[in-house]
UniProtKB/TrEMBL annotation:
Organism for this UniProt entry: Nothobranchius furzeri
Keyword Transcription assigned: no
Region span, Disordered: 1-30
Official protein name in the record: Tyrosine aminotransferase
One Pfam family in the UniProt entry: Aminotran_1_2
Family membership noted in the UniProt record: Belongs to the class-I pyridoxal-phosphate-dependent aminotransferase family.
Source superkingdom: Eukaryota
Span of domain Aminotransferase class I/classII large: 84-446
Pathway: Amino-acid degradation; L-phenylalanine degradation; acetoacetate and fumarate from L-phenylalanine: step 2/6
């Protein structure tokens, strides 16, 4: 309503009387009703319309749903008491203790705490020195960065939330990979933003079906999300494929949210270019953080890198991000204090060892499950995940991937995440961060689980 109002306040303001801030109409200067009783100011009594307690959750709360929790919480997970549980479902590399972060990372945190310089509030976008450290670490000639191009956030998840918020209004739509990280939909739907799923192609190492993606774009498409390397697929897009993605975004003038939390967690022989380094005209907000590459997800340190091609974002998007970051008081200050040292002093050996371990476990899992009839694993090229297709027609005892993975827990105490949680049925995701001996044992159990089911299927055919 804008009749007789300017910026939400009445265009006609009553005059204060007697220097008290109380007007002749009983209005305080801020528009709140007051009455004067014995020289004191009290709020005017307003008759309540409520006759009973009726406290309801907000629409945003009701619309918030994590697809993973929705599926997992509904599963009947009763492990086989004779076999210890092997959980291959949680994307947390710290769970089993076999992938500790580097001593240099821990020392940086200890030094930050001991300095006692980082116990107070930081600017909502982060300390300038810490932002400059991130800018220096990720800057390249094709995509240069300065401190002003970096916003520090409480984990990569908050970075993603801020980007979706700054790009989208209720009623807009965003393009999200399928299968893809469930958080995108959780955040968008809660804010009244429509999610359009574009297909990834397992037969092409999970490349994007570009024709399908482009067909989903309309006048209300406010953002394209590209996840590279991928959760849940472990895929890494080649440079040529990334260029084709940028071509579609450029053609339709759609900005990109690049989820690059797994950047540089790429197996030898594969190259992972950042989208921004390949873009000449598409503006990109890249989201990343310490969680995965440095193996400290609980430290909650993320960032947004602003790559504004041709000043398309201008000051408006930047200011929007600053304002949104002010809703909370920013990322953990102690981790910010350690950030420069973490980025500059973590040895390359640590990165190499982590990637080598992930690649080895991925190869073990892929090679073992490739020989199981009815299972079709897709070899990853990075990140921490491997997707396995289920030929459901060869497993008539199970109605879907949720039923399959539920029974796998019951019989073999191996928990893999059904890909229905990523809106991609008849697959399941394996996290490859477990110790090698557990990876081998899990594959043996999966084989044992599938064999009697296959035998029953063959018996029925006979």
């Amino acid at each position: 309503m804008n009749d007789k109002r300017v910026h939400g306040k009445s265009a006609i303001q009553p005059k204060p009387l007697n220097g008290t801030g109380v007007t002749g109409k009983g209005m305080h200067g801020n528009g709140i009703h007051h009455v004067n009783v014995n020289g004191s100011l009290y709020p005017a009594k307003v008759k309540s319309r409520r006759q009973m307690w009726d406290v309801q959750p907000s629409e945003m709360a009701n619309n918030t749903l994590n697809p993973i929790r929705a599926i997992v919480d509904g599963m009947k997970l009763t492990p086989n008491p004779d076999k210890p549980m092997i959980a291959l479902s949680i994307g947390d590399p710290t769970v089993f203790g076999n992938l500790p972060t580097d001593d240099a990372v821990l020392q940086a945190m200890k030094d930050a705490i001991d300095s006692q310089k980082f116990n107070g509030y930081a600017p909502s976008v982060g300390y300038l020195q810490s932002r400059q450290a991130v800018a220096n670490f990720y800057s390249c000639p094709e995509a240069p960065l300065q401190a002003e191009d970096v916003i520090l956030t409480s984990g990569c998840s908050q970075a993603i939330e801020l980007v979706i918020n700054v790009f989208c209004n209720p009623g807009d739509n965003i393009l999200v990979p399928c299968p893809g990280f469930s958080l995108y939909k959780t955040l968008a739907v809660s804010m009244g933003i429509k999610v359009k799923l574009y297909n990834l192609l397992p037969e092409k190492s999970w490349e994007i079906d570009l024709q399908h993606m482009e067909s989903l774009i309309d006048e209300r498409t406010s953002c394209l999300i590209v996840t590279n390397p991928s959760n849940p697929c472990g895929s890494v897009f080649k440079k040529e494929h990334l260029q084709k993605i940028l071509k579609v975004a450029s053609k339709h003038c759609v900005p990109i949210l690049a989820d690059e939390i797994y950047s540089d967690m790429v197996f030898p022989g594969c190259n992972s270019s950042s989208l921004a380094s390949l873009s000449s005209d598409v503006p990109i907000l890249s989201c990343g953080g310490l969680a995965k590459r440095w193996l400290v997800p609980g430290w909650r340190m993320g960032w947004i890198l602003i790559h504004d091609r041709n000043n398309i974002f201008g000051s408006e998007i930047r200011q929007g991000l600053v304002k949104l970051s002010q809703r909370i008081l920013g990322a953990c200050t102690v981790v910010q204090g350690a950030l420069e040292s973490i980025l500059n002093n973590t040895p390359e050996r640590f990165y190499r060892d982590t990637i080598s371990f992930l690649q080895s476990n991925s190869e073990i899992c892929f090679n073992e499950l490739s020989t199981v009839p009815g299972l079709n694993p897709v070899m990853p090229s990075g990140a921490m995940y491997l997707m396995v297709g289920i030929e459901m027609e060869r497993f008539p005892d199970f109605k879907d991937d949720v039923d399959f993975t539920e029974r796998l827990v019951t019989e073999q105490s191996v928990f893999c995440l059904p890909a229905s949680a990523f809106e991609y049925p008849n697959f399941f995701r394996i996290v490859v961060t477990v110790p090698e001996e557990m990876m081998v044992e899990a594959c043996i159990r999966i084989r044992e689980f599938c064999q009697p089911v296959m035998r029953r299927s063959w018996d029925q055919c006979d």
